[in-house]
Amino acid sequence: MDEDTQRHGTIGITTYAAKALGDVVFVELPALDLEVSAGDAIGAVESVKSASDILSPISGRVVERNELLEEKPGTINRGPEAEGWIARIEVGEGVVGEVEGLMGEEEYRKFTEEE
């Protein structure tokens, strides 16, 4: 989550997921102002290998989407945790438990090593 406000977060895929997908050829972005719950599909990423839904990790409202991905979906492969972000979400009220349940960077690294 954005540490400046604690009310906004960025949704995207990890470098690990981008490598597993292969070359991304299409990204379906969420609608602006879309209200989502944790686990809801908010879009999709299609690659030469497969298609995957993008799931929101927390509840809130989509306030920004990365329009660049519509024209240059491969941006996800070049910088999935930077310029390849998918959407920004305003975190809903009372979702502290959802946020606390998310994996941290080290936890995720260990999780992917077990895969």
What is the topological layout?
Layout: E1 8-11, H1 15-21, E2 24-28, E3 35-36, E4 41-47, E5 51-55, E6 60-65, H2 68-71, H3 75-78, E7 87-91, H4 96-100, H5 105-114
Total of DSSP H or I helical runs spanning 4+ residues = 5
Termini separation comes to: 25 Å
Radius of gyration: 14 Å
Which structural category fits the helices and strands? alpha+beta
Low-confidence stretches: none
Quick one: overall form?
globular
Major sheet details: 4 strands, antiparallel
Brief summary of the model shown:
The protein is of the alpha+beta class. It has 5 helices and 7 strands; from the N terminus they run βαβββββααβαα.
What can you see in these coordinates?
The radius of gyration is 14 Å and the shape is globular. It is built from 5 helices and 7 strands, in the order E-H-E-E-E-E-E-H-H-E-H-H. By secondary structure, the chain is an alpha+beta fold. The strands form 2 sheets. A 4-stranded antiparallel β-sheet has the order 1-7-6-3, with no helix packed on it. A hairpin with a 3-residue loop joins strand 4 and strand 5. The chain starts with 7 loop residues before the first strand and ends with a helix.
